[in-house]
Every structure is written in C-alpha cells, then in structure tokens.
Amino acid sequence: TGRTIQPLIPQQQFAVTPQTFEAEVIWNATPNTDYYIIEVNKNEFTNDELQEGSIIYGEDKGITSSPYSITGLEEQTTYYLRLRSCSESAQPSKWCTLEDGTFTTKS
Predict the structure, then answer these.
(1) Where are the alpha helices (DSSP H) in the chain?
(2) What is the rounded distance in angstroms from the CA atom of residue 40 to the CA atom of residue 101?
(3) φ, ψ for residue 37 (rounded to 5)?
(4) pTM metric for this prediction
(5) What span, in angstroms and rounded, lies between the C-alpha atoms of 101 and 79?
(6) Residue burial 78-102, b: 16+ Cβ < 10 Å; e: rest
(7) Which residues does the chain have with pLDDT short of 70?
(8) Are the C-beta atoms of 30 and 10 separated by less than 8 Å?
(9) Which residues on adjacent β-strands are paired with residue 56?
(10) Cα 43 to Cα 32, 48, 55, 56, 59, distances in angstroms
C-alpha cells in the first residue's frame, strides 16, 4: 500500500501485581507490535537507553502479549519498571512507566 508506518504509540495503562520473587505485568496491547521489552531496575531510569544494573525481559522477542510474569526479583525490594513495544518494521515506542513509578515485592 506504500503507506509510511507510524512509530508505535505506547498505551499508558499498565499495572504490576508483585509477589515475593516475581511480579505479573499487565498492559493494553498496542497495534503494529511484534514484541515487548520490559526493563526493571532498583534505581530510577535516567534516559531512554537500557540502564546498567537492569533486568531486561523480552530481548529474545519472546514477550508478545499481556500478561507476563517477570521473575528473578528480590523480596521486599522496590523496583522501577518500564515497558516499550517493538516492531520489526518501525522504531520502538517511547518507554511507558508505571503511574506510581515503582512497585515493591512482598516478603
């Protein structure tokens, strides 16, 4: 059709349900998305690059739908979390962050 594919638009609505060593992440699906990247860090994110010390989920392009359980977390720990949608044919979306910024795992 020759139309230019617009960059992906992040949906602002998503939430985390923390457990002790994992958390379930739920978000609204976005159009023209092949996979999602979730980034978790104990420190606040400072820019759009993947941050040192982060746990990155989905770099294998394996996260294709919501919900998704992120694992390998520490108990009673506060984490920053962000999500972006990615496509093989367009630039990744802007990072979408949690409304509260952080979530805390249970003990």
Answers:
(1) none
(2) 11
(3) -115, 130
(4) 0.87
(5) 8
(6) ebbbbbbbbbeebebbeebbbeeee
(7) 1-12
(8) yes
(9) 39
(10) 31, 14, 11, 14, 20
Burial of 46 (0-12, 13-18, 19+ CB in 10 A): exposed
State the pairing for strand pair 55-57/22-27.
unpaired
Please name the helix (run of DSSP H) or strand (run of DSSP E) that holds residue 82, with its range, or none. strand 78-86
| Residue 87 to residues 40, 41, 77, Cα–Cα distance (Å) | 21, 24, 32
Reading the block at residue 49, the tokens are 């690059």
Residue 27: what residue type? Answer: W
C-alpha distances (whole Å) from 35 to each of 8, 17, 29 are 12, 21, 10
Tokens of 23: 């958390």
Report residue 55 as tokens: 């746990």
